[in-house]
Amino acid sequence: MRIETATEPGTPERPNEDFVSVALPAAGHGGCLVLLDGVTPPADATGCVHSVPWYVAGLGGALIELSVSRPDMTLGECLATAIDRVVNSHSETCDLSHPRTPQATVVLVRWNADTVDHLVLSDSVLLLAAPDGAITPVLDDRLGHLPEPLPSMRAELRALPRGSAQRVSAAAEYGRAVEALRNADGGFFTAAADPSVAARAVTGATPRAAVLALAALTDGAARLVDGFADDDWPSTFALLRKQGAAELIRRVRAAESADPDGTRYPRWKTHDDATAVLAEL
Fold it and tell me: Which of 28, 25, 3, 102 has the alpha carbon at shortest distance from 60?
């Protein structure tokens, strides 16, 4: 079995808010993988005295432990229980009802001799590779399909002159509109302080014989496909297997650096935290 991971912060001035871990129990043919992408809050208050890295470390650690020690639990049950554990660890010190309480996207995979189970919540990506070379992306694409007026607001925002006061004001208004749909019906969902969000995740199971390898990417590592449309999932997976996770991130950074002001690739951050993990089963 081959396991390879790589991660890089979006900027050296801020801590990396991604989390990745792989567990390979010695007992047999199983394992699990956890990939989290912490949601960077605005500069104002979040209602919590803890940082996003603190949250993803707690949630990620609980997910790894539960996925290994409780094979009787579904991945959704593991996620709900892990969220509940983190909630209990800081509910007395923090306002967990705050909409910007620490939160994260989730990719969770567990495999044994028979089955590969998966769970995806929000915009990180899971790729499953079949023995015949076919690549199946598992996506929770609700963030990319928000209802009107969000698409129209985004188009109008991008048409405004960069650096203008109108663009700054429109960006703030658009951001507030997106935030209003976070963890709300008709919007999109992240792991935060409500264990019931686990029921909103994209889940499924695939026969182990039908999965040769798998990869998980935070949105910062998936930009060549999901943000920039310069690549596709099969070629991204081929790059991971042939040249490694670090090379994928290097290419993302090269594309970002060639477009620092977001003219060709409109985006909120010039560089985002980027994490990729490959597991050949």
Answer: 102
273 close to 8: Cβ distance less than 8 angstroms: yes
Which CATH number does 2-143+188-280 carry? 3.60.40.10
Q: 55: which residues sit within 8 A by CB, 6+ positions away?
A: 38, 48, 86, 102, 103, 104
The pLDDT of residue 42? 79
Separation CA 224–CA 231 (nearest Å): 6
Structural tokens at position 24: 């390979």
Give the distance between the most distant pair of CA atoms in the chain.
60
Look over the chain and give the mean of its residue pLDDT values, rounded to a whole number. 94
Pick from 109, 121, 107: nearest CA to 32: 109
CA separation for the pair 25, 211 (Å, rounded): 19
Alpha-helix residue ranges (DSSP H) falling in 94-185? 150-159, 165-179
Q: Radius of gyration of the chain from Cα atoms?
A: 19
Q: What whole-number distance in Å separates Cα of residue 269 and Cα of residue 253?
A: 12
CB within 8 Å of 226: residues ≥ 6 apart: 123, 125, 219
Q: Report yes or no on whether pTM surpasses 0.85.
A: yes
